[in-house]
Design brief:
The protein is α/β, with parallel strands linked by helices. It has helices spanning about 15-25, 70-80, 100-110; strands at about 5-10, 25-35, 60-65, 90-95, 115-120. The protein is built from 3 helices and 5 strands, in the order βαββαβαβ. The strands form 2 sheets. A 3-stranded parallel beta sheet has the order 1-2-3, with helices on one face. The protein has a two-stranded parallel sheet with strand order 4-5. The relative contact order is 0.14.
């Protein structure tokens, strides 16, 4: 898709250790990976040596879970509500109501191939 140039940025919000490896491969020199995903199995996350530029490709990998808290969640909610943050490209499964929270959590656990992120709208 980039004609072999690679992408500027990768945001990892789901996937596995192999997804992480693919993110490194897709990144162009000087690019950045932001990982907010819990890579939950195995002992190691491998970084493909050649695609990483053998450590000289200036590829930056940042990671950590998003800090929670009421203020941050209210700010994110207001950004979505007022249309300044469009989460629809990441929302592959949308549910309405409290009754579907368990279903959304089970999807996250099962990680089907068509899942990016489930969203539960509390209306």
């Amino acid at each position: 898709m980039t004609g072999g140039k690679g992408v500027d940025r990768v945001c990892m919000a789901g996937g596995t250790v192999s997804t992480f490896e693919e993110a490194v491969k897709a990144l162009k020199p000087g690019g950045r990976i932001g990982n907010v995903n819990y890579l939950g199995s195995g002992e190691f996350v491998t970084i493909p040596r050649v695609e990483w530029g053998a450590g000289m490709g200036h590829k930056v990998i940042s990671g950590g879970l998003m800090p929670g808290g009421r203020l941050r969640m209210e700010k994110l909610g207001s950004l979505v509500s007022c249309g300044r943050l469009d989460v629809s490209p990441l929302s592959t499964h949308v549910f309405h109501g409290w009754d579907h929270i368990d279903e959304a959590l089970q999807l996250m656990r099962a990680k089907p191939a068509d899942l990016i992120k489930p969203v539960v709208i509390l209306d």
